[in-house]
Amino acid sequence: MEELLRTTDITLIPLAKTLLDGEDIPSFELDVNMSILEGSIGILPRRLMVRTADLDRARRVLELAGVDLAR
Q: In this structure, how many other beta carbons lie within 10 angstroms of the beta carbon of residue 2?
């Protein structure tokens, strides 16, 4: 698995997952429990992971949708 996205923006992960699901690219969110433990105040980033084989395609999907992967 490769990290596709790391963000503290709570709206970005669901958007990215929806876009990837629409292209049949499986993804997995990491650090959800750590974010909950810190009280969801947004200081700990969450990561969105994809399979290594899907990484380039997943990046293109998000970039075409205007998602800034440099966050």
A: 13
Question: What's the number of domains the chain is made of?
Answer: 1
- Give the end-to-end CA distance of the chain in Å, rounded to a whole number: 19
Q: Rounded to whole angstroms, how far apart are CA atoms 48 and 19?
A: 12
Domain range spanning residue 51?
A: 2-64
Greatest pairwise CA separation for the chain in angstroms: 34
Placement of tokens 């998000």 in the chain: 62
Q: Is the pLDDT of residue 35 over 60?
A: no
Give the alpha-carbon dihedral of 64, 54, 28, 1, to 10 degrees. Answer: -130
- Which pTM value belongs to this model? 0.84
- For residue 71, the model assigns a pLDDT of 59
Give me the residue label for tokens 């998602």: 67
